[in-house]
Amino acid sequence: MQTKCAPAGAAPVHDEPPLPPPNKKARALHGKIIIQLKNLLSRNAASALDPVFKAGYSTILELFAAYQREIIASSDYRVTCGKNCPLCCFHWVADVYSFEAAMIGEYIQNHLPQNIPAMCAALREDARLLQTLDDMLDERVLKDARPDTLRELDRDDLLLEGFYQLRRPCALLDERGACTVYAVRPMSCRSYVSFSDPLLCDPDTIYYHEALTCLCTLEPQADELLEELHARYDRCEGDTSLRTLLPYYLEGFRDCIFKRII
After folding, report:
1. Inter-residue contact 213 to 6 (CB < 8 Å)
2. How far is CA 48 from CA 53, 158, 178, in A?
3. Higher-confidence residue: 177 or 213?
4. Residue 142 phi/psi, 5° resolution?
5. Taking 50 as the threshold, does the pLDDT of residue 13 lie above it?
6. How far apart are CA 212 and CA 14, in angstroms?
7. SS3 state at 18
8. Using one digit for the tens of pLDDT, what is the confidence trace for 207-254?
């Protein structure tokens, strides 16, 4: 298991809680995930929307949830996130697999077709704002920065922190702030967990280090297999950002607004 302080694209810059290493049951669950991933790769489905592929990945997500529960249950922490809590949904989700975006797009087309025009308009506005922030970062922050300062800065983190503080809610939330694609939300969203009062997930608390959040992810072997699957079904030139991928999968054409893929 990898647990790390979440980067700005996925979670606030908070303190990392120490989670225990995987116990015997967690390791067994991770082993089942590896087997399922290898099965998906060996089946070589023509599309990520193949029913067998979707069923296989759904099983992986169920195993991943059980794996996380096992890790956290053996720790001193308890998750405070909830299904209808939207406070972390201001982030620019930068790490989505191509096949996940395809499945989310299909889910929206099947269940929320009336929402697609408004969703895509909001997603394109998000991309435009991120591009504006990117330009401002060059012109106002990095242009005259000292070399030693530039070496210490993570450009992408600065950009994504800026976007988070714009308070742009994910276009997939409904009017109550609930995720409309919760059943097929990407692994990146599932990986982020908070052990603090949910109010500390608000963008205003991004530098409040007493909050405890982390990314509870899989081991490197699983990551490598997931990357293989991503490359197999990638149709968007390496783009892995949810807000720029979805218009392609919802409307069928690539709209490259943001010039620099994160």
Report:
1. yes
2. 6, 33, 26
3. 177
4. -90, -20
5. no
6. 6
7. coil
8. 666 778 888 999 999 999 999 999 999 999 889 999 999 999 999 876
CA–CA separation, 117 and 52 (whole Å): 30
CA dist 6 to 54, 88, 153, 234, Å?
Answer: 28, 12, 16, 25
The number of beta carbons lying within 10 Å of the beta carbon of residue 49 is: 15
164 close to 206: Cβ distance less than 8 angstroms? yes
Q: Is the pLDDT of residue 125 over 90?
A: yes
Give the predicted TM-score (pTM) of the model.
0.88
Do residues 217 and 68 touch, judged by C-beta distance below 8 A?
A: no
- Max Cα-Cα span within the chain: 53
Tokens at residue 177, please? 């702030």
Per-residue pLDDT tens digits for 72-89: 999 888 888 877 788 889
**What are the tokens at 3?**
């647990």
- Tokens representing 16 are 């990392």
Amino acid letter, residue 112: L
The residues near 147 (Cβ < 8 Å, ≥ 6 apart) are none
Amino acid sitting at position 201: C
What is the distance between the alpha carbons of residues 106 and 110, in angstroms, rounded to a whole number? 6
For 58-88, give one letter per residue: b (16+ CB within 10 A) or e. eebbebbebbbebbbeeeebeebbeeeebbb
Considering only CA atoms, give the Rg of the chain: 18
Q: Residue 161, Cβ neighbours under 10 Å: how many?
A: 21
Phi and psi at residue 178, to the nearest 5°: -90, 145
